[in-house]
Each structure stands twice: as structure tokens, then as C-alpha cells.
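> forwarded from #structure-qc
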């Protein structure tokens, strides 16, 4: 009888036999197994699982498990571990494993923000040899390595990736393709050379043309989009419109039949409320081109009362009592006239005094009164309350919160110094300046301006921005003999969309940013890196600063000097204009000569107080924006040319202004060519 049968007759030996069999089965279950998913496919498992399998594998499957683990580690945000694991992948790989290693290496470099190295790695890969899953990753790595900088290569990467995606990822691809297209300059678009087989790209560019030609008229734009869909039925955007264009097809203008105007009509900020309301009413009643008799302010003492917080006001400059108030019409007309909304209207407007009243109560009252749109409030603390009050009314706030918030029924319009600083960054960058120094008031006010400039500068592709704090006029006078050194402290950009700084040092998978060089910190004796200075100062302060900047440089090459509107006030005589030779400054179109008749009317109305003229212009544009509220809120790229600038809204409906620039030249003011 076989021995196995003897175990059945001896119960004492039966149990050990079963245990042995279970142990053998257990061991066979832990044996290394081939990956159940291809190394060329999606890595949907956890890094722990892949690493465990790689540790137990000693054959050709080990590299597959390791490469899958690297991708899982990247997805889990464990970038240092991903780089460490990638370095452990063996060298003797199959052709398929080698190709996957190259692609994974580029993805690790993107995760490390080593974008230049990633671009180099990607250029060595032939995408025709990749699987569909790998192609989707390949083009995504190209997109990520571009850091959001629009280019033809980026557009082509989006187009190539599109058919490889589904669901939300597909819609995101369509939306991002459209965003990249709309961010391209007209010059870049016109210089595109399309290959014979790029029918999809041609369709996208024609859609962009339809958009640019009709974006100011929602009805024409709707018709243009539908016509484009008929002409390009197989284009991916014809089947799945970009979200922003889909909103155009469902666009409905907001009602402006009853407008609630929230302004401080009493108290310290009354003078600001009066100026804005006068501009708003003049635009609403179509009175901008008609002479208006000069009128005294409702409160004769209001102009001499400072606001509770001078920097909380939307005006970017304050009147300088030390300067005589004379006719300011020195600027030459700008190259193009300003278009403002001046048509009369049947809208009903009710003014609500925000001084000392809770915002929530005012919003409730306005809703009960039948208002369909609120214009205001003006002061920043009340604007900060808006998002928490959750009113159903559409609101055009006349200031903006410290942190941008996207609320579906709120737009923010402010004459903020931060907005001016962003415009200055764009202007200086366009003039090929690359190493700016900011001279701003010490304290929170100057810090906000410097931060706004630095964030915008790095979005444009710039790197280090230096900041130097300015003291009082008395401190400036005491330092005239020593001048101003072209030195400063680097301003670190806080905007998440800003591209990374110059490459640092990577140790153990952690990148340490490169410290600013001596050339970035100080100009030095050899000519130095500072090529431009942006000054935020009053007219009297700039009178002291400009000669000190001239003394700070030895040699013929001087940094270009730019100033904010804070320095432009009435009373600048010929001597001042000669002293400011070469200085450029920005200001609203109304004061830059865009509409001389309206400028004369406004300056006479407010006794040449430019700060109030700017608020009067703000009231004019607030009326125009109120009538285009839905377009600004929902239609990307919609613009209004107004008295305070060329106005456009970002994705959070924060209104940005593009300002004209003027320059002092031989005692005169002339427009700066764009």
C-alpha cells in the first residue's frame, strides 16, 4: 500500500502533511509574478505594491516593476523617491523598457521643475514608437515643460494629445488649447507657418480669427461660432467647444434697469464718493461731451479730510498741496482716441450711503428695492465682506480684495497701485528691460506694489526683481549728498503661475533655489545689472529722487526711470519737466490726453485735483462696465476702452487696465510709442 495511504490510517501523521502542503502553497503564492499591466500602459497601482513586487523579482520583470513604481511615486507627489528609484533601474533593458525609461526620466525632470533638462530628454524620443498611453504622457510632459508659456510647439502638443484623452481630461485639453491660443500675440499668430497636413491647427486658428473679429458683440460672436462649426465639422473643438465659447452660446445680458450705487456719501471718504457718483451720472445721462459748470463740493471741508486709511482709497495718488494748482493740459493727444460709453439711459439709479452701515443690510435693502445690479462698495474692508454675504445680486465692486476670489456674480474694478505696477511690469518688459529696481514707500503699501510687480514680471519670464524702501521727504532731503545706491532686496514672487527661477542645486532629490548673484543684488562699479528703476513717489518726492538716481551712476549709461501716476499732478512747470528729462510715467487716458475736451471739463470741475479727476473717470467707466457686466463676467477677452484705461477681465473677473505711457522730453510731454 502506498505510503500516502498510511497517513490516512494514522491520524497523528495526517496534520503535519496538511501543514507542509499549505506552506508549499503559500510559498508559491509569494513567488515573483509578471506585471499584470504593460509597462507601456497606465500605472494605476500604488507605489508600495510596485516596489514590493520589484523587491521580490530577480528576473527580467524587475525593471518593469521599478518603472511602474517610479510613475506611481510621481503621481503620489514623492518626487525624491521617484528619482532615487529611477537611478536603480538596471542598464540591461529591452528596447521597450529603454523607451519607457527615457519617457519616465523626462517626467521625473518635470516633477523636479528641471524643465530645460526635460525638454532635452523629450527631444530624444520618437513619439511614433510609443503606445497611445505613452503618447498622452509624452505630450503632457511637453506641455508641463513649457511652464505655461504659449508657443506654436505648445499648441501642437495640445492638438496631438487631444485624441488620446477622454472625459474631463479631454475637455481640459480643449479648454487649455483655447487659452493658449488666446494668449498668443497678434504678431505670433501672424507668423505661424502651417504644414499642409495640419488641418486641425488651421481650424483652431480660424476659430481664433472669428473670436477676435466678433468678441465685442455677443450676437455676432454666436453666429460666427455656429458658422465655424459648420465649416469645420471634424475639428475637435466643433464637437466639444471650449467652455468659454460654450458660455457665449448661452450668453444673456444682465439687466441694468435698476442700479444700486454703494458709495461713502458722508464721513472722511465722502469726497471720493462724490467724485465717482458725478462721473457715473454724467456717463449715464450722456453729459460727457457737454460743458459742465464748475460746482463746489457738497462739503467744502471734505477735500482736506484724509480717509481713515489713505492706502485703502482707490486713487493711486494724492493731491500735493505744496504745488500751485494751474492748468495741467501739457500732454499731447494719445495716438488713438478713447471710446467711452456716453449714451443716455433710462436706468434708475439709487445711491446708498455706505458710511457706518453694515454691507449685508445694504444688500438686503437694495434687493427689496428691486435693484438688479450693485455698483460698489468702494472701501476695501467692505469689498472683503462681499464673498461671505452671498447676495444673489450682480455686483461690480469698486475695489478688490487682498486675495482674488472667483464669485460667479461679482466683478472687481479698482484704480489700484498694484494694477498700475502690473501694467508697468508689462511695459518695461516690452521695452527689453530685464533687471528692474523698485523704489517704493516703506511699509505694507510699498510691499503690495512690489509683490504685484514681481508676480507679473515672472509671469512674463523675468527673474530677480529688487526692491528698495523709500523714507519720508525729509529722509530723502537728508540723503541728497549721498544719492541713491542701485541696490535692493530680491522680491520673491508668490504667484503660483509664475515660472521657476534660475536652476538651483538638487541634493537628495530636493532642489535648493539658487541665491541671487552679486550682480543681481547691487549694481557695482562696472556698470552693473540694474537697467531700469520703477519709482512710486509723489511729485515732490520724485523731484528729489531723480537727481539722486543720476548721481548714482558713473558713466554714460543710466538706467531708464519709470514712475507711477502718483507723481503726476497739476502744477508741474517747465523747470520740473526739464528736470524729469527721460522719465516715463503712466496715467489714465483721460489725463494722458486721450479726450482733451473731457479732461478740460473734469479738471475745471475739481479744481485741477488730479486724484479726484481719476475717481471721476472711474465713475464714468463704472457705468460702462455696469452695462457690459455679463460680457466681462462670462466672455473671455472682452474689452472696453475707457477713461481709466483699456479694461479687460481675468478669469476671476478682476478688471485690469492697460495704461498709456508719457515721457518728459525737452521740457514737453510726449506719448511713448507702444
Amino acid at each position: 500500500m502506498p505510503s500516502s495511504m498510511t497517513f490516512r490510517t494514522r491520524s497523528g501523521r495526517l496534520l503535519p502533511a496538511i501543514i507542509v502542503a499549505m506552506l508549499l502553497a503559500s510559498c508559491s503564492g509569494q513567488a515573483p509574478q509578471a506585471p499584470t499591466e504593460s509597462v507601456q500602459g497606465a500605472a494605476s497601482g500604488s507605489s508600495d505594491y510596485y516596489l514590493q513586487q520589484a523587491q521580490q523579482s530577480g528576473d527580467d520583470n524587475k525593471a518593469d516593476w521599478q518603472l511602474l513604481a517610479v510613475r506611481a511615486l510621481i503621481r503620489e507627489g514623492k518626487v525624491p523617491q521617484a528619482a532615487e528609484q529611477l537611478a536603480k533601474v538596471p542598464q540591461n533593458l529591452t528596447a521597450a523598457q529603454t523607451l519607457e525609461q527615457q519617457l519616465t526620466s523626462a517626467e521625473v525632470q518635470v516633477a523636479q521643475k528641471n524643465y530645460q533638462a526635460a525638454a532635452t530628454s523629450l527631444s530624444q524620443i520618437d513619439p511614433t514608437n510609443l503606445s497611445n498611453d505613452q503618447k498622452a504622457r509624452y505630450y503632457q510632459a511637453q506641455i508641463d515643460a513649457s511652464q505655461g508659456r504659449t508657443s506654436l510647439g505648445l499648441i501642437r502638443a495640445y492638438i496631438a494629445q487631444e485624441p488620446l484623452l477622454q472625459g474631463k481630461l479631454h475637455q481640459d485639453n480643449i479648454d487649455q488649447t483655447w487659452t493658449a491660443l488666446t494668449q498668443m500675440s497678434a504678431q505670433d499668430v501672424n507668423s505661424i507657418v502651417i504644414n499642409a497636413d495640419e488641418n486641425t491647427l488651421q481650424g483652431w486658428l480660424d476659430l481664433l480669427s472669428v473670436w477676435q473679429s466678433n468678441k465685442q458683440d455677443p450676437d455676432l460672436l454666436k453666429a460666427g461660432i455656429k458658422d465655424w462649426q459648420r465649416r469645420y465639422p471634424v475639428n475637435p473643438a466643433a464637437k466639444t467647444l471650449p467652455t468659454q465659447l460654450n458660455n457665449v452660446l448661452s450668453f444673456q445680458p444682465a439687466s441694468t434697469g435698476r442700479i444700486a450705487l454703494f458709495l461713502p456719501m458722508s464721513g472722511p471718504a465722502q469726497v471720493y464718493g462724490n467724485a465717482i457718483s458725478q462721473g457715473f451720472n454724467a456717463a449715464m445721462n450722456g453729459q460727457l461731451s457737454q460743458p459742465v459748470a464748475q460746482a463746489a463740493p457738497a462739503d467744502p471741508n471734505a477735500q482736506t479730510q484724509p480717509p481713515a486709511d489713505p492706502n485703502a482709497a482707490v486713487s493711486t495718488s494724492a493731491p500735493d498741496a505744496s504745488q500751485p494748482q494751474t492748468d495741467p493740459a501739457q500732454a499731447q493727444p494719445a495716438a488713438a482716441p478713447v471710446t467711452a460709453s456716453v449714451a443716455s439711459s433710462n436706468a434708475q439709479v439709487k445711491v446708498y450711503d455706505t458710511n457706518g452701515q453694515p454691507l449685508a443690510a445694504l444688500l438686503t435693502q437694495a434687493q427689496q428695492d428691486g435693484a438688479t445690479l450693485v455698483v460698489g462698495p468702494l472701501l476695501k474692508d467692505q469689498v472683503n465682506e462681499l464673498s461671505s454675504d452671498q447676495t444673489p445680486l450682480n455686483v461690480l465692486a469698486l475695489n478688490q480684495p487682498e486675495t482674488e476670489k472667483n464669485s460667479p456674480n461679482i466683478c472687481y474694478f479698482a484704480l489700484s497701485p498694484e494694477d498700475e505696477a502690473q501694467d508697468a511690469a508689462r511695459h518695461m518688459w516690452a521695452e527689453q528691460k530685464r533687471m528692474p529696481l523698485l523704489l517704493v514707500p516703506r511699509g505694507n503699501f510699498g510691499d503690495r506694489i512690489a509683490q504685484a510687480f514681481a508676480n507679473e514680471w515672472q509671469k512674463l519670464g523675468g527673474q530677480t526683481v529688487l526692491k528698495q524702501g523709500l523714507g519720508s521727504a525729509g529722509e530723502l532731503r537728508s540723503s541728497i549728498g549721498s544719492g541713491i545706491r542701485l541696490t535692493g532686496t530680491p522680491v520673491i514672487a508668490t504667484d503660483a503661475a509664475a515660472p521657476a527661477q534660475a536652476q538651483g542645486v538638487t541634493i537628495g532629490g530636493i532642489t535648493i533655489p539658487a541665491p541671487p548673484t552679486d550682480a543681481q543684488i547691487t549694481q557695482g562699479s562696472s556698470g552693473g545689472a540694474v537697467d531700469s528703476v520703477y519709482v512710486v513717489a509723489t511729485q515732490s518726492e520724485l523731484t528729489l529722487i531723480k537727481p539722486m538716481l543720476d548721481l548714482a551712476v558713473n558713466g554714460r549709461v543710466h538706467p531708464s526711470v519709470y514712475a507711477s501716476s502718483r507723481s503726476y499732478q497739476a502744477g508741474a512747470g517747465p523747470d520740473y519737466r526739464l528736470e524729469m528729462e527721460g522719465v516715463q510715467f503712466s496715467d489714465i487716458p483721460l489725463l494722458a490726453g486721450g479726450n482733451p475736451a473731457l479732461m478740460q471739463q473734469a479738471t475745471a470741475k475739481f479744481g485741477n485735483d488730479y486724484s479726484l479727476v481719476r475717481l471721476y473717470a472711474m465713475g464714468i467707466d463704472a457705468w460702462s462696465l455696469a452695462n457690459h457686466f455679463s460680457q466681462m463676467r462670462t466672455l473671455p477677452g472682452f474689452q472696453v476702452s475707457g477713461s481709466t484705461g483699456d479694461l479687460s477681465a481675468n478669469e476671476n473677473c478682476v478688471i485690469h487696465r492697460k495704461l498709456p505711457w508719457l515721457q518728459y522730453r525737452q521740457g514737453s510731454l510726449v506719448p511713448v510709442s507702444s
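QC bot note: Residues 422 and 453 are 5 Å apart (CA to CA). The radius of gyration is 32 Å.
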